[in-house]
């Protein structure tokens, strides 16, 4: 088709909304402002922070780290014969082209710490792509309970 897709949330922490900080609606649209598209080459990871303002004029700093994963673009062609579909076997040894889809890690906070956000998302990305045997739930739990000292304040 057009190559445009629709983003979806695969996993989130916390799984249920906190009363004082609900999950931002439409965050999947925010992650890819130019649309969810497949590309023929793997793009380098990107990072940006934007500020969303809710209905109560509360600011939410949204850090977005996007990387690209290979997806299988080979789908057998089907033909209809006598009202029944038949799948066509590939007749040539040509390998199917590989496409890459964006995948985004998003951190939403009421605090403005872009460099801390970049480091946290970079750590999660590294654990994910290296296939380390560390539970993402534990990593995120540890990140959520870290105390970040205020500049100029006592530790």
UniProtKB/TrEMBL annotation:
GO cellular component, as recorded: cytoplasmic vesicle
Domain UDENN: 1-155
One matching Pfam family: uDENN
GO BP of this protein: regulation of Rab protein signal transduction
The UniProt record lists the keyword Translocase: no
Molecular function in Gene Ontology: guanyl-nucleotide exchange factor activity
Alphabetical keyword list: Guanine-nucleotide releasing factor
Region (Disordered): 72-97
InterPro entries for the chain: cDENN_dom (IPR001194), DENN_Domain_GEFs (IPR051696), Tripartite_DENN (IPR037516), uDENN_dom (IPR005113)
Keyword presence, Heme: no
PANTHER family associated with the record: C-MYC PROMOTER-BINDING PROTEIN (PTHR12296:SF16), DENN DOMAIN-CONTAINING PROTEIN 4 (PTHR12296)
Identification of the protein by name: MTMR5 protein
Lineage: Eukaryota, Metazoa, Chordata, Craniata, Vertebrata
Gene that produces this protein: Sbf1_2
């Amino acid at each position: 088709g057009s190559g445009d897709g629709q983003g979806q949330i695969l996993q989130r922490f916390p799984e249920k909304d906190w009363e004082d900080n609900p999950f931002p609606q439409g965050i999947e649209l925010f992650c890819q402002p130019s649309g969810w598209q497949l590309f023929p080459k793997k793009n380098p990871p990107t990072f940006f922070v934007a500020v969303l303002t809710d209905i109560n004029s509360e600011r939410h700093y949204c850090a977005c780290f996007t990387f690209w994963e290979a997806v299988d673009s080979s789908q057998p062609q089907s033909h209809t014969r006598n009202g029944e579909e038949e799948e066509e076997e590939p007749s040539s040894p040509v390998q199917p082209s590989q496409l890459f889809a964006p995948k985004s890690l998003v951190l939403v906070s009421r605090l403005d710490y872009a460099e801390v956000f970049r480091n946290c998302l970079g750590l999660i990305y590294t654990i994910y792509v290296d296939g380390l045997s560390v539970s993402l739930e534990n990593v995120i739990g540890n990140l959520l309970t870290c105390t970040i000292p205020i500049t100029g304040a006592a530790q």
